[in-house]
Description:
The complex is a heterotrimer of chains A (259), B (288) and C (324).
Chain A: E1 5-14, E2 17-27, E3 32-36, H1 43-50, E4 58-63, E5 66-67, H2 73-79, E6 81-83, H3 96-103, H4 112-117, H5 120-139, H6 155-168, E7 173-177, H7 185-200, E8 204-209, H8 212-218, E9 221-226, E10 229-234, H9 236-240, H10 243-252
Parallel strand pairs in A: 3-8, 3-9, 6-7, 7-8
Antiparallel strand pairs in A: 1-2, 1-4, 4-5, 9-10
Chain B: H1 2-29, H2 36-53, H3 58-87, H4 93-113, E1 127-130, E2 133-136, H5 137-159, H6 161-171, H7 173-178, H8 183-209, H9 216-230, H10 235-255, H11 263-277
Antiparallel strand pairs in B: 1-2
Helix pairs in contact in B: 1-5, 1-8, 1-9, 1-10, 2-3, 2-4, 2-8, 2-9, 3-4, 3-8, 5-6, 5-8, 6-8, 9-10, 10-11
Chain C: H1 3-28, H2 32-55, H3 63-79, H4 85-107, H5 112-132, E1 151-153, E2 156-159, H6 168-192, H7 194-204, H8 206-211, H9 216-242, H10 252-265, H11 272-286, H12 294-308, H13 314-323
Antiparallel strand pairs in C: 1-2
Amino acid sequence: MAPILQVKNLSKAYGGLIAVNDVSFEVERGEILSVIGPNGAGKSTIFKLISSFVKPTRGEVLFEGERISGLAPHIVARKGVVRTFQETTIFKGLTARDSVVVAHHLRSRANLIDYYLNTAAARRDEDEFGRSSDEILEFLGLGEVKNEIAGNLPQGHLRALGIAIGLAANPKVLLLDEPFAGMNHDETRRAIEMTRAVRERGVTLLLVEHDIAAVMRISDRIAVINFGSKIAEGKPAEIQSNDKVIEAYLGVEDESIGI
Amino acid sequence: MEQVIVNGLYLGAQYALIALGLTLIFALMNVLNFAHGQMYVIGGFLVYEIYGRMHWPFVVALFAAAATLAVIGGLLERFLFRTVIRRSLREESTMLLAAGVAYFLDAAILLLFGEKQHGVPKIVRGVFVSDNLIIPYDRVLVACLAILFIVAFVLMMQFTKPGRAMRAMAQDRVAAQLMGVPVEFYSLVGFALGAMLAGLVGGLLVTITGVNSGIGGPISIKAFTMVMIGGAGVVGGAILGGFILGMLESVGLSVLHSYGDITYLAIFVSLLIFLSIRPNGLMGKPWG
Amino acid sequence: MRPTAQALFAAVFAFVLLVIVPWAIRVTHHDDFYYTLSSVALLAIASGGVWLTFYIGRINIGQGAYALIGGYASAIFVVKAGLSFWIAMPLAGVVCALVSVAIGLPILRLRGVYFAMVTLVLTEVARLSALALPITNGAMGITEIPPPGPLGLFGFNLLPSFASFANRNQAFYFLCVVMMMLCFAALYRLVNSRVGRLFAALRQNEDLASSMGLNVPALRVLAYAISSFLGGVGGAIFAAIAQSVYPSSFTVADSINFMLNCFLGGLGYVFGPMLGTLVLYFGWDLLFQAGQYQLLIYSGVMIILMLVLPNGLLSLRFSRKKGA
């Protein structure tokens, strides 16, 4: 089967500064692929390029064979490529459940006028979204805190809420932005389990991550970026023994490689 | 043609100084100071009282105006803005406060100085005349003083300790605080400095155009316009925006003269179009 | 609030405005109150619009522009095109909504103080345009606008011509109050529907909202268009009451006041703008006795209110409730 996501010769320059240089890789349906690299390597630019929050200077991103780069972010999300944000960017003022219900917007069949008049179609949507939200929140272990204001939740719950909001949009590919950043050992273990469970739901996952140890445990394949270019791609074991990767990481910080 | 350019430069120097004060307060505290124009008017009236009516030297009057405004600015920051920023759930609340302060100062100005237009004796007499250029000497002097103040301000921001601290705060208030910058103190200093700049320009321009109690609001709008052109919260942007607006106004008044009073309409409409292409102005940073 | 409580509250509110207030005015012979209260109602409608832009996270100091456009549009429709006021009024709202879509598409990309400054300039643009354009008749404005004619629907005569009323101020009062209740009921429904929740999501985080598939630019413009529609309707009725409209009918000061009404009432509450407008307008009127100190006291009180209640008047009630 064709890859679900193809990144082809992607480049992005800010002024004279080249953040991403001719990067290509493919994501197979149902796999977990991680993009890693030292700080400032261009990972987050790649992330923004795929979710179309930033337009590429050259190259393109294809989803199910169709070009998605250059489209508005909400269109890309509608097609099934949904990104999450780090915990600082959630709907702070809404309850956890309301955030997830709002995130179901993509699935709605009723239009805004239906919502305004609260027609049968709108109520049907609303009931369905409520049920689905409860299910997702339960699935990610947020059932207990679903009526809390999101801004008051602790870190670990916020990460899960971010993923819950992403899942609500019914993604085919879910892009996770540094899902393990700033987590301790236990939290990381739980986040890994959560990520695997999401994959079991049939969602393809693309991670952008700094924490190599976690990535090694969870990924099917890994692409390594340094100075904006891809320097390696392969299974975790191959990456682990790749000289270029070790050099790139050792050059920056020693402890990260402690696998 | 030369006349238009010279007029533009003269206006631009004043405007840049006005915009600097506004942008400084905005950069440091994220407060849009609606009362900036009123501060300008107070500066004008103080110079009128001291130099125009009490006949003290102009320099003394200008200095007194600057010092008074600095004190007013400092008091406003310490007792009003600081409190509201701390207590409010939304940062927009400072805009309400600033609007309230603008109204209050407007009322106070009206009560203290009346509604008549006032002028002062010229600080230097004489007019420079050549083939296609007529400039009164007092305008030359005022423009030079304005440019001097701008240069002094920029040097202060670049090379002194308070200047560096304030620049750090404008970049990232939290980070600056972590680095040990006393942000509350420098908010006060910045606000006082911003108010002082407004008072300085008011004091300078009263010698040319006079002053009346109703021009505070329009001056504020001009200041907003300049800051939008150049980019909010950026020193270079404020200076650039000031000179651009001065030039536009000068060109507009001479070119569009025959169509009636549409210079400002044309400027505002082009500003809207410009901002829809470059939302952050010429030098502004992206907004988040 | 439960639906029955809501309906009860609305009924009491309508009863007070439509029966008690007119009765009180008749008993006390304060006929001028009709005009004052009509103005409050219209300003509240326009402020309600501003409130909605706040709701999506934009500081709107440009509502004066739309009130002015609405006033001129309805005046032109009535005087130059001979349309009935009852058609001209909603049409003026639509004109404003359309203008706001054209302007909003680019400028709604701006945030924070930037958006606020641009909207402030917008009010000046409207005023200067009214001065410069031929159709608005320059500084002379449009005067002698006839009062609203009869209102008919499907051959039924719902209302006779306003010219036939003995007490025209009273007729306008009923018009304004009914319009205000309609507008705020619509606004209340909007905010409490799912559309409102989408707007709230926008205010909280536009990037996240768009990553969930929300068409953020379109929703923003929708909210802004509704807001401007309300501004236009308010301006249109204002022109009808005053029977005239000038470039200075709505200025930057009005735009700022609309914003203040929202702030004072409290940005978290739909009915905040109504309360804020009432308090500010009456506060201003009462201070008339203070003569030359009017503005000084008014702004002084405003500053003190900001210090004591930085989150609006209605926050008082709500925080007490929380404490109890």
